[in-house]
Amino acid sequence: MRDRQQLEGISLLGNTGVKYPTQYAPEVLETFINKHPDNEYLVTFTCPEFTSLCPKTGQPDFAKIIINYIPRERMVESKSLKLYLFSFRNHGDFHEDCINIILKDLCQLMDPKYIEVKGIFTPRGGIAIYPFANYGDVEHQWLVKQRFQASFLDSF
Predict the structure, then answer these.
(1) 142: which residues sit within 8 A by CB, 6+ positions away?
(2) Weakest-pLDDT range from 66-70, 87-91, 125-129, 139-143
(3) Which CATH class is domain 27-154?
(4) What are the structural domain ranges in the chain?
(5) pTM to 2 decimals?
(6) Residue 62 burial (CB < 10 Å; 0-12/13-18/19+)?
(7) Which secondary structure element, helix H or strand E, spans residue 119, and what is its range?
(8) What is the pLDDT of residue 18?
(9) For 79-103, what is each residue's pLDDT tens digit?
(10) What is the DSSP string of 40-82?
(11) CB neighbours of 7 closer than 8 A, spacing ≥ 6?
(12) Beta carbons of 91 and 85 less than 8 angstroms apart
């Protein structure tokens, strides 16, 4: 079990008075210490209800966001991630921009060994867009290349 010191900085989990942000809010992201940094393991988050706005028309865009990462010392707390992803609800950006913003914010927050973010956006105007972005440290460049190439196959 984690002690109080290991839970420092976790303020959203269990807090019933949390307000959902109405604008893009990377500051809501919180982390906790990875108790198993010597293990190479994968963490996957799936957000089936992501929403953002088209920057030109203001129309809503809907997506399933999938985040996979191999943690280093810090890990993202899931409720803060939920609030962060919710903060895109009124954010006007293209699908590709949203995915890259999420990737960069999570990289800056956690410094993961490897991370990838994929958006499976609901078709609008008869076209579906599935942006994919990934990052890996020096030891995981093989995975960056492999997963990037695999993402091409996933889109067919």
Answers:
(1) none
(2) 125-129
(3) alpha beta
(4) 27-154
(5) 0.90
(6) middle
(7) strand 114-121
(8) 75
(9) 999 999 999 999 999 999 999 999 9
(10) ---EEEEEEEEEEE-TTT--EEEEEEEEEEE-SSEEE-HHHHH
(11) 32
(12) no
